[in-house]
Amino acid sequence: MSKQYETVIGLEVHVELATKTKIFCGCSTAFGSAPNTHTCPVCTGMPGSLPVLNKQVVEYAMAVGVAMNCEINQYCKFDRKNYFYPDNPQNYQISQLYLPICHDGGIEIETSEGKKTIGIHEIHMEEDAGKLVHDDWEDVSLVDYNRSGVPLIEIVSEPDMRSAEEVIAYLDKLRMIVQYLGASDCKMQEGSMRADVNLSVREVGAKEFGTRTEMKNIGSFKAIARAIEAETARQIDLIESGEKVVQETRRWNDDQGYSYAMRSKEDAQDYRYFPEPDLVPIVISDEWLQRIKDSQPELREAKRQRYQDEFGLPEYDANILTSAKKMADVFEATTAICNKPKKVSNWLMGETMRILKEQNKDPEDIAFSPENLAKLIELTDAGTINGNVAKEVFEQIFAEDIDPDKYVEEHGLKTVNDEGALRDTIAKVIEENPQSVEDYRNGKEKAIGFLVGQTMKAMKGKANPGMVNKILKELL
Question: Domain Asn/Gln amidotransferase spans what residues (predicted)?
């Protein structure tokens, strides 16, 4: 009988915080600028330069800790983690080993297996390293220090996850909490959220953990799921064939679907940690901590429930609208203006999601104003424009945030409700399509659809469909 194995997974998730400036200097943290333009003596590790802690980093770290049910260390400090690597200009990274800011928390996830709490071992603050750009053409590596000194929190889970499904549910929940707090945009494609996967396998029922490997900086949820499946299979194959799993750091290559060894895993002593001598310890007063607790926003679960209770939305709508903070914000702001929650929800879940998908964008990229969406809903409700025209106008709102009132006026898109004009057009359509008229009279209900279509075409799509139907039936 073959042995049954289970996978044991813990994650280290790095999140770049949404501060305007870096953790120990005043350089900008903006993404995507020309290399080495957001740098100064501090973040390029020049001798004699001294770090000064950014207070906002501490506040974001506390807020995330509180939201993840952690204990907050009200006395915490920084340590130096020493390693020599070309993208690390001081040859050490300022991090927190001995007294991290948050510890012993947990968040609840939901999978097909039900609900489960994943423990959070600790959350600590640290600075990011620079970025190496490898140029295969010239066979050189160049270094960009724009990212060096960008503030990070590292969220270290307990080894409580047992499947790729649980890992994705956990990451999704983490991302949601951090986004709702406004602490980071968590865009994996820009590296503002990166996950290292620590994974081992053991026989079902075994008390001891197996030997773990760590896979670094995997860039998307799908890649993480694939990496977990592949690494699990690799370790089981090794054990089955009597070989040992080596504790090491591996790099996952998502294009080729396999991982390869990078280096044997270092332990804390390899980094020669010691307390950071250039920074004083952080003392968090009770009042400061209380202020952070009091200013926690409404998180997704509470919002989802409120949308159902307060706005009478179906659970399905509430789920989708709260799946991204930006979506929820636009929904609430638009509803506050027009007071038509279900219609706002329909526009966001239908057309907005469709265009985002087509353009491969995130809800965070929504740029139109709630005012203009509210105006569009009013125009449609008043029958000033019909549904098809509304969709056309919405595309313009999405693209350029145009004022729908002006746009409809300038482009002559108002619905024709003039019965006289409609009657003349419909009479002409009936005259030109004797076959369809006969089909309709012979009981083919569908034929009327064709005649409605022809009328709309003749009216350049601006007729009131209800009126067209009514007059057609009357004339036929």
Answer: 329-476
